[in-house]
Amino acid sequence: MLSVPLPANETERQQALDRLELLDTPADPYLDTLTRLAHDLFQVKMALVTLVDRDRQWFKSRQGLDVAETERSLSYCSHVVLHDEPLIVEDSQVDQRFAGTELALNTPDVRFYAGWPLRDADGMPLGTLCVADPLPRQFDHQDRFKLRDLAYLTENYLHLQHCSQQASDLRDALSREQRKGMLDALTQLWNRAGLLHFLPLEQAAAEHHQLRLGLIYCDLDHFKQVNDRHGHDGGDHVLWESARRMSSAVRPQDVVTRNGGEEFVILTQVHDEQELLQIAERIRLAIASQPMQLEDAQLQQTASLGCALLGPGESAVDALKRADQALYRAKHGGRNRTEFAPCPH
């Protein structure tokens, strides 16, 4: 049961959300930049782009939160959507609207909340840009203006993204249920099923554009030690942060996937070996350039990468194997490096 009433226009609102084809899609580097700005600007534990779905709130972008979705019934964002106006809760324990309610009692990590509605082009509320923290705080008029401006940038980017050709291609290729099965919940990247789905599509697209299909295997170095020293929560954060850095280092049209564990595969359409290696090096440097901030420590993470170009008449699976072999050469060669697998003769 929903503890928050449904909006009177819920059917139309849900249809508008479904039309955007944003639910259960990979994380977006632009939106991650906006939530990171909100996180740092307001000095809060969490900053989120939240889409309020039928029985859940799903996070298109998240900082400071490990889960991809939570129940709609325990959601301040649902109140934003219901009333279609900003919601500021400086202290849920004393706020007359929420003190003593199931929402306040069962979400102790969200004692402070500030959410701004995100609407579609017709003004239908779809979700929020929100910030939250376990500690109460004051949120003055200047803070409201800053959150409003960040929400404006977020909302208009969502409109542009919906209109883009890439979004159109995704809508044509996959249903929402298919997307859910191909999305890795932790990293918000395509999973192995997504990799296998996009592999022939990217191969065909490369041939159509008279380009080469490049394959990059990326493996986080010494990842077992991360779990041993910092626990699985620390390891999950490193995986999440690594995924963000990879996505920001590649081009919008490149496909970034989590193949399993600490192993990632990137599909990219390039002209030649040099261009492929440049992309791989951007990924390597994005991971290694700055320490990752864990709750109890800073961690200097590195990655090893193996690259291959799909050869004439070669199957994509065989090219993936060559990239994987190059990855192991990079690891045996000292790690934190990139190796290229020449095409077979």
Automatic annotation (TrEMBL):
Gene3D superfamilies registered for this protein in UniProt: 3.30.450.40, 3.30.70.270
CDD domains: GGDEF (cd01949)
Protein name: Diguanylate cyclase (GGDEF) domain-containing protein
Record's GO cellular component terms: plasma membrane
Cross-referenced SUPFAM superfamilies: GAF domain-like (SSF55781), Nucleotide cyclase (SSF55073)
Cofactor(s) the protein requires to work: Mg(2+)
Domain GGDEF residues, every copy: 211-343
Subcellular locations according to the entry: Cell inner membrane
Alphabetical UniProt keywords: Nucleotidyltransferase, Transferase
Organism: Ectopseudomonas alcaliphila
Enzyme Commission no: 2.7.7.65
GO MF annotation terms: diguanylate cyclase activity
Pfam families reported in the protein's UniProt record: GAF, GGDEF
